[in-house]
Amino acid sequence: MRRFVIGRARNLLENSCQNYQFQRYLLSSSQSSYRFLSSTPVVDSLSSSYSPYSTMAPPITVNTINPKVLECEYAVRGEIVTLAQKLQQEIQAKPEAHPFEEILYCNIGNPQSLGQQPITFFREVLALCDHPSILDKSETQGLFSADSIERAWQILDQIPGRATGAYSHSQGIKGLRDTIAAGIEARDGFPADPNDIFLTDGASPAVHMMMQLLIRSEKDGILCPIPQYPLYSASIALHGGTLVPYYLDEATGWGLEVSELKNQLETAKSKGITVRALVVINPGNPTGQVLAEENQKAIVEFCKQEGLVLLADEVYQENVYVPEKKFHSFKKVSRSMGYGEKDISLVSFQSVSKGYYGECGKRGGYMEVTGFSADVREQIYKVASVNLCSNISGQILASLVMSPPKVGDESYESYRAERDGILSSLARRAKTLEDAFNKLEGVTCNKAEGAMYLFPRICLPEKAIKAAEAAKTAPDAFYCHRLLTATGIVFVPGSGFRQVPGTWHFRCTILPQEDKIPAVVTRLTDFHKSFMDEFCD
Amino acid sequence: MRRFVIGRARNLLENSCQNYQFQRYLLSSSQSSYRFLSSTPVVDSLSSSYSPYSTMAPPITVNTINPKVLECEYAVRGEIVTLAQKLQQEIQAKPEAHPFEEILYCNIGNPQSLGQQPITFFREVLALCDHPSILDKSETQGLFSADSIERAWQILDQIPGRATGAYSHSQGIKGLRDTIAAGIEARDGFPADPNDIFLTDGASPAVHMMMQLLIRSEKDGILCPIPQYPLYSASIALHGGTLVPYYLDEATGWGLEVSELKNQLETAKSKGITVRALVVINPGNPTGQVLAEENQKAIVEFCKQEGLVLLADEVYQENVYVPEKKFHSFKKVSRSMGYGEKDISLVSFQSVSKGYYGECGKRGGYMEVTGFSADVREQIYKVASVNLCSNISGQILASLVMSPPKVGDESYESYRAERDGILSSLARRAKTLEDAFNKLEGVTCNKAEGAMYLFPRICLPEKAIKAAEAAKTAPDAFYCHRLLTATGIVFVPGSGFRQVPGTWHFRCTILPQEDKIPAVVTRLTDFHKSFMDEFCD
């Protein structure tokens, strides 16, 4: 081996045009070859020259990992859920282990886990794109709708070599971005540029990308609604920034007041925080409100005046349940005010996880990025390219969501029926649960105008609050824990979403199937009564 | 509206048990309602009390975004590729625009983009899991192999409610992790725990997760091989850490010397860097070497002695082309040395993107995490849960890769033929290209024992180096640029992977289809000759 090493080294030296550094490098390498060939562990030969204790890396403990990881929290899959999973396993092992037969997960916006069915047309297209070799088989005609076969061909023709297993362009397949841009334009009445679209594995990675871009240090702040979906607080913590809260007004159906934005901005500035962006979740999570267009205009104006990036989380854009409200994208609102690329920096997030499609596990989504300079856009592109691209099935789904079957398509009627069935059912469940909450003593619940959640406020008796303190847990978490162990129902404590200090809430999804809702209502109502009996004087 | 606000507010006040803070909050809200209802932009009413210039957020420019984003680079999709895409568009518009008919992308490990076909059985299973309603149709029997149907049922039974569109457990579907753990055990002969598996959207997000966990500041260092796959340098930069280089020995076929690890570790410590982990890519990227088992034992011993986390990138574990080498996982090597959970912290990365399956676009992969305390594991789980879960298709693929058809299965023969066809072809292409490079004047090329790349060293004439300097570009980038514009061939300059200072390389994949390889060789050879003629005196 050594002869070989030296021979090769000589060749390389002779060939080398810049050999000084390389000579030095090689010399140290050939000396070290001896140690490599020796069976003595390297350390022993050095043990006389160092103390293992002083040079060893610190062990990996919670005290030596990145403190930002410690700081970040994500209650949607937090302690209450871990406990629920444990109880579920106990019931599976021994059905009489608890005073309930099943866990009713109302903690997470995960519709298909609770029986919601996927949109048939979407899954037909995905399956065909996964296995294109069946496209021209006769049996396929009998198994799949004609328009799903046609759409699969169309999509495959947009993918170089029809290779659905290849990495795509870092922003996603161009043809799919064209489709999405066309869908955005059809929705808004204003043009969208496919080059502004970045397809991502769900909306969450896109949010992380923007937080990573905007946050330089803990002196950079991001205005976030309180209550908020805890992806934002987690992401800001992970990226070392500061969450600047603005409080939604529970008394006005979770209204978003620009004066509150202004106040919080000034307060942050007075603390030396540079606020860089405003997060708006519309329709809201966990609060379910749909902003009025005038409100949105005031928000856009605020961002423009203050030079803030507007981060518009619009993943629930298809979930609006009340006739008096309508979803308007912030892109549309900005453009309708005459504001273009030069006026406002806007990032709009969409996902395939919500709406009527509920394809959470497929991890599809995108951000539409407008109003940034070309060189900042290059940086965004660069960060996207480090991860190469998002998953192709998710990309395909995103294009289907933004361009579903149209009137006249073979699948249109069944698509429409599936979609309307899901949305009307969601609206009914939202109402049923809202009414149920409002009947509970000490509980008030705003209407869920949209999204998938209710966020009732619970007024807890003093005795309960003291019991919570004794148990070293927040009062709303105490309530949720008691609820779970008594009934199997899983809500997420409001603390997980933040709330006006001194108020308590919990988030409940509207997703259990309609036939389960009566059980949820009954168990909840009975539990609540006995809880109040126990803790009220 | 105001009457409504005040009425609701009164109700809430009466109901409120802890109303002091809430009263204050409400009072400021009702005052601010006036501004909300007014059509005057909020800013005007405050304009007397602030200067717009001093309070506005700094505009978003490359100088005001996170500098870590600016620092990170990813050459695999860098400038040379952007130029190639531009030239490609020019040829599509005007075929005679350049002295070549097509771009030959040899820059990225993306096999299916260059014609490699997916494994039929894998795609059958994916398609069936995407659209399970066809599973019991008679036409399906005619279109899909019986064992793919059976496997799809098996997988669906492992998914609660058979809901492939639902978010799964944050670490991935349990049943799939069981399959993967069994596959690891079959491969290594040592047990694997499904609870140690974290399924991720490809290996890259798993790498990012570990960097995020381990890097607290720029004082934390990660030992990385030079040359390295630039995900590592990019991730370390994005997380604010320090890359501590260790040089692979080109003269010994890119050997990894433990003495070099020791030297670099000591150097880093003397600069005040706390080295936390060692990255080893085996088989190597871009270098293609497969480590000898003895070498791996020395590496494991080194990590144990120094208390470093071993980050084992093993995504090319199925790509070994030489009979004298074999892939041994670091998990197997550690366990075979008698080292268990208490002895070494080891994270092993695998992906569905490489091997013989090449499913880059599906974004499937996992990390197997062993040797960390329970509370650190909880933190890893928490970070994984912020993104909810990886895409289900990728999870399914990962389980198929670790548990492919077995002897006796209906699909075994065709699966084996597809697999062997791809691997033997890769081995042939590796050899053909290696020989072609070694024939070029001033170029030496180590054998690609594994992975998907060659990393030849080029000795550039002084005149070329000066021309590169004048063009303000690195010499290897200069060569690659010239190569591209003359021939359409896309290599990535070695600078993108780092190299011993003063040496120049480029990375070429072995992925163009076999029938394209002669064209690559001919064009490259002709170009190289004229380049040397131009720049040698």
TrEMBL record, chains A, B:
- According to the UniProt record, what class of enzyme is this? transferase
SUPFAM superfamilies linked to this entry: PLP-dependent transferases (SSF53383)
Please state which protein family the record places this protein in: Belongs to the class-I pyridoxal-phosphate-dependent aminotransferase family. Alanine aminotransferase subfamily.
Which cofactor is recorded for it?
pyridoxal 5'-phosphate
Membrane-crossing residues? none
Summary of subunit composition and partner proteins: Homodimer.
Annotated InterPro entries: ALAT1/2-like, Aminotransferase_I/II_large, PyrdxlP-dep_Trfase, PyrdxlP-dep_Trfase_major, PyrdxlP-dep_Trfase_small
Could you tell me which Pfam families the record lists for this protein?
Aminotran_1_2
* Keywords of this entry: Aminotransferase, Pyridoxal phosphate, Transferase
Tell me which Gene Ontology terms the entry assigns under biological process: L-alanine catabolic process
State the protein's name.
Answer: alanine transaminase
Q: What is the E.C. number?
A: 2.6.1.2
Alphabetized Gene3D superfamilies for the sequence: 1.10.287.1970, Aspartate Aminotransferase, domain 1, Type I PLP-dependent aspartate aminotransferase-like (Major domain)
Q: Which domain of life is it from?
A: Eukaryota
Start and end of every Aminotransferase class I/classII large domain?
Answer: 161-519
Q: In which pathway does it act?
A: Photosynthesis; C4 acid pathway; Amino-acid degradation; L-alanine degradation via transaminase pathway; pyruvate from L-alanine: step 1/1
Species of provenance: Durio zibethinus
Any signal peptide, and if so, which residues?
Answer: none
Task: Extract the GO molecular function terms from the UniProt entry.
Answer: L-alanine:2-oxoglutarate aminotransferase activity; pyridoxal phosphate binding
